[in-house]
Amino acid sequence: MNMAVAQSQRLAVSPYARRLARERALPLETLRGSGPGGRILAADVLGFVPAAAPVNLPDIVAPSVAAPRIAAFTASVALTALRDLLAALESTGRAFDLDDVLLRAAGRAFGEIPDVAKVGDTSVALELAGRQAVFATIPEMSLTLLHATRLAALADNRDYAEMPALLSILVLPASDIRPVMLPLLPGRGMRLAVSVSTAGDHAECLLTADTASVDEAVAAAWFAALKSAIEHPLRLFV
Amino acid sequence: MAISAARAREYSRGAPNLPDRKILLDLFERMVLLRRFESIAQIACRKGETPGFLHLYIGEEATGVGVCAHLRPTDWVTSTHRGHGHALAKGGNPGRVMAELFGKADGICGGRGGTMHLYDRSVGLFGTNGIVAAGIGHAVGIGLSARQQGRDDVGVAFFGDGAANHGGFHEALNFAAVQRAPAVFVCENNLYATATPLNSVTLNPEIATKAASYGMPGVAVDGNDVFAVWLAMKEATERARAGKGPTLIEAKTYRTVGHHEGDPVIGTYRTQEELDAWIKRDPIDMFRKKLIEEYGVADAEALAAIESRIEKVVEEALAFARNSPEPDPATVRLHVFADPINPPAALAWRAVGETRTQGWLEAVRDGIAEEMRANPAILYFGEGTGERGGSFAHTKNLWQEFGAERMVDTPISEQGFTAAAVGASATGARTVSDLMFADFAFETAGQIFLQAAKLRYMTSGLMSAPMVVRVGAGALRSSGPHHSGIYHPVFAHVPGLIVCVPSTPADAKGLMKTALRAGDPVIMLEPKALFASKGEVPVGEHYVPFGVARIARAGTDITIVAAGQMVQRALEAAQALATEGIESEVIDPRTIMPLDIETIVASVRKTHRLLIVDEAWAMCGLGGEIAQAINELAFDELDAPPGRLHTAPTSHPFAPVLERAMLVDTDRIVQGVRDVIAGKPPVPDHWYTVGLKSAAPVKPAPVPAKVAQAPPPAQAPASDDEPITMPFGDLTVSEGTVVKWLKAVGDAVKEGELIAEIETDKAVVEIEAPISGKLSAIDQPVGAVVPMGGRIGGIKK
Q1: Cβ contact, residue pair B635, A15, below 8 Å
Q2: What residues in A contact B640, CB-CB < 8 Å?
Q3: Which CATH number fits domain A10-46: 3.20.190.10, 4.10.320.10, 3.30.360.10, 3.40.190.10?
Q4: What DSSP string runs through B254-291?
Q5: A139, A157, B378, B777: most buried by Cβ count inside 10 Å?
Q6: Contacts B675 to A, Cβ<8 Å
Q7: Stretch B61-68: mean pLDDT
């Protein structure tokens, strides 16, 4: 009967528990109901603790959206040097965007912290509106080449979400908001979100990593290398 | 005791006994006013201008006019469904009465009352009444109220022969007689209760003789002879004012129109001969002749001048009614209760001072005595509540202090003395109607639900019945099926009643004192099971406001709402649950109407769980009401479905073991709380589901064809003729078939001449020419079906 189907698909939640979960941005699906028939009660929301990584499941490497084994790092990255440099380059007719610099810096960081990735797996996905473009960031690919490849990818319009890449980069519209939690994209072991301040003098960055793919300490080191590369941009051009 | 007809004739013979010329001409003028007013109302009704029913008094004017000629504005009359005449005879403003028939804002009741509910405090009109015999007892209370307030005003009840077979008549007359109430009972015997001949429903159709049963004088008069009525009423009024007691006057009369507009004039129950005979005895024609030929106080010209003057008055009344605005729909919720609902005394802040331990009955008795000392116009009606002190000793010593005139020991006539309580409380006194047991309230349900509860609303707030219905309520040790009910949801269901269910002596006293100062009828349900209880009662003035709950116990895990004797059970359960670590908050609403839902919501916001425990039954009851209110007001606060525990849906059994099985007790509340906390509230089984499947329609049911209702009055076509229309009439009839045209196109017709007949489901309607002229068009031939108000032809002048 339709009713039975509907009932089986419907999550039983007390109105108060539903309200508490809404206020805490907790997805109801992640909660376990202790009430009659598995009904989620207020106590289930108030007592919710994210589950620890299961120790006996080492084989699970495929990252997933709801993966509970997440590490996240934030950093404020100064952009004043980069801004000055880009302006100077532009006056000489060589225009680069922040995206180019990010791809370049990611490649540089991969070079400095090789443990972060399996050998050869240093592709980076750039998140565009509704699709991804994937770039091979062999450590010393020049900015000029990166820039040209990126423009070609933008014109291409194809979605490379299925193409392997360790990292995806999301450049948020300029604002003074600091991202603190973003899900990983399917198939990506790390995600870098960059929110450039409205003044343009710094960016708030969030690195989310699936600890099943990337050791958290290694991810942190990689993030530090990235930050350093952007804050000292001259090194990226040599 | 009856005044003989011979004596009445003696009064009228010869000049010395005649009243002065002005009185006689006033009687004539007033009768003409009634007749012309209603003739115009009749036309307006047929045109569809007056909503609702219309019962006309045409033919009976002499009675209302002859009676009211003796009355002052401070005397009151109670009336019937056929009461426009009484309203006008008592002095009602014709324009405002007509506006009320039109349902307009300038009507005497602001359009809320209408034809059968015409009240006017300024002229002493206690209301036409849609309920047969309901007003008779009001007149008794009105008289007692006036006497208690030191005035010699009287209460006069009009009613028909149909009412003379109603309990309300017998109870009221008996109570009035034994109280020597300043009242006059005027039966307008028009021979038919709607269409039922009087002599087919009683073996004693001489209604005046029924007075003897109650030891009061009864007199039968020619109700079509205004002077005969005037004489009989003169004596009855003088007797009443002098404190000698009530009189029953039977005025034999006849209505020369149908029961109501749209009903056939003759129908199946009367003959043309009978009608013609009574038309020959038309009260106005007879009196006109007498004034000219017998009394010689006026000539035809002088009387015609009066009639022309009245014609102008009613034309103005009609114009006034037509021009009056409709009531503002935004006001529909006004005048249900006094605003504010609490009297000032209950809202005044008082420091909590000294208290003393008192029993329930003593505390309430103190409250009543304090209020009776403060207000000499409080009367207490009850069975055995006088010298005996009440069945529960609940009026002990009050009779000794306040005397038999105020502590009135009544006959076992709940209807009679509750009606009197309504009449008295609406006219300056305050009354307690002590019905002993809540179950007995249904003996006078009409007076409570239809009269007291609605009075303020019907009159757009101009009148109210601030009475207290006091009863012992609820189960107590095998009181049995007829002495155990509490019924507060029944009372709370009807707009206009305040319903109190106290649970402590202090609240019982405080609510009683507030009730005796309130502006509206109060149903005071005192749980009998608590009569033996004791509690701390504040010393001195102590008022508990209506609509303010008491938090009987604070808690965090669940809210239990309980009233009356269930409060103590809930507190016991809360104590037991505390040992399990469950902290219950117990809310005692104290008054069911108004209901302090805000306190309950605030509690649920804290506890997120709710159990309603109520002594009344579950069906359409308090549990469902409060649970749904929480759904509406605090859904997101609920962590479990609300639960309800009610007395089992049975009558109260006598056997103690059965009674225990039926009632909610502490253990059931404990279990109910555990169930709600477990997310599985107790599910009642009061629906008596039969298990048969409802069938789904094979195809969607068509929307029922809309019954033609009040189409706009027929518009004349391009031609300038006067439309002939199918008149509006019976509310349940919407169309008719043309069965006969008595005139052909081109024929000359006179205004009022019969020109066609239309048959409806209920009657053959005779269509008269609206004006004199020539029949210019027949739009609807024989056989055509025409809607009410539809045009069937036209007349050209």
Answers
A1: yes
A2: 14, 35, 41
A3: 4.10.320.10
A4: --SS-SSTTS-SSTTT--HHHHHHHHHT-HHHHHHHII
A5: B378
A6: none
A7: 98
